[in-house]
Amino acid sequence: MKNITVIGAGTMGRGIALACVQAGYDVVVQDVSEESLQRCETYIRKFTDSVSIQFETDLQQAVKSADLVIEAVLELMDLKVEIFKALDTFAPPHAILATNTSTMSPTEIASQTSRPGQCIALHFFNPVHKMKLIEVICGLETSEETIQTSMEFGQSLGKECVKINEFPGFAAGRMNCLIGNEAMNMVMEGVGSIEDIDKAMKLGLNHPMGPLELADLVGLDTRLRNMEYLYATLGEKYRPCPILKKYVKAGWLGKKTGRGFYTYDEEGNKL
């Protein structure tokens, strides 16, 4: 495996692309937005001046030589299915097609392609360059060869990989959403301040980051989509906290908009 294409130049896409470049792969980042690609390139150039990365708006051109395609777009099933149908058409027959998702079904996505055995979910964590884990999630028809190749790829990035059988929310995402949602309910109920609830989790349970700070980092709109999916598939205990819905309606999406549970300056530092 030599050539990696990342679909989506947002927070996760640029992080995955950077990790791949630093591991020595030739990388193409594709996005329909020139502006997003420019922001992605600016971010990546802070860490490397490697010439092994290209930026492309045309999907067919971006995947023509890919050995592995990693889709890293919004957590919307219709969008992911649409992209995978196109990838199935344009990517080389040997290419593995992976979705970076914290909740969505790789089986459902793979069923829309002619190569379900070569489809898998690779759940990276934000920020990718710091987080050591990749969840390797197997769909119903994912082949053992695809699983093994994906595990070896993850390890080549310096990550630890865990094999997870598909179930809504997988392992880390399912627990993370539940903890974060309960922290939001505690804020709404007046149990403690945002800062003190986060501090309690960091110092009392040895979490490296508080659940509210983490939700801001992930993006409250992304977290809401995850919660809505888990609520629909797993039931009442995953009902999104009303304060999460309110913040998203207000445009308080977390670090990327400068305001969520905390407020941030233009460099993304907490105020």
Automatic annotation (TrEMBL):
Site described as Important for catalytic activity, located at H123
* Keyword Magnesium belongs to the record: no
Transmembrane feature ranges: none
Question: Single Gene Ontology BP term?
Answer: fatty acid metabolic process
Record domain 3-hydroxyacyl-CoA dehydrogenase NAD binding: where: 3-166
Task: Give the coiled coil ranges.
Answer: none
Q: Which residues belong to any copy of the 3-hydroxyacyl-CoA dehydrogenase C-terminal domain?
A: 169-264
The biological pathway it contributes to is: Lipid metabolism; butanoate metabolism
What InterPro entries does UniProt report for this protein, alphabetically? 3-OHacyl-CoA_DH (IPR022694), 3-OHacyl-CoA_DH_NAD-bd (IPR006176), 3HC_DH_C (IPR006108), 6-PGluconate_DH-like_C_sf (IPR008927), 6PGD_dom2 (IPR013328), NAD(P)-bd_dom_sf (IPR036291)
Q: Which UniProt keywords apply?
A: NAD, Oxidoreductase
Example of a GO MF term: oxidoreductase activity, acting on the CH-OH group of donors, NAD or NADP as acceptor
**What is any Pfam family matched here?**
3HCDH_N
Positions of NAD(+) binding: G8, A9, G10, T11, M12, G13, D31, E75, K80, S102, N126, K256
User: Which family does the entry's similarity section mention?
Assistant: Belongs to the 3-hydroxyacyl-CoA dehydrogenase family.
- Write down what this protein is called: 3-hydroxyacyl-CoA dehydrogenase
Report the source organism.
Peribacillus asahii
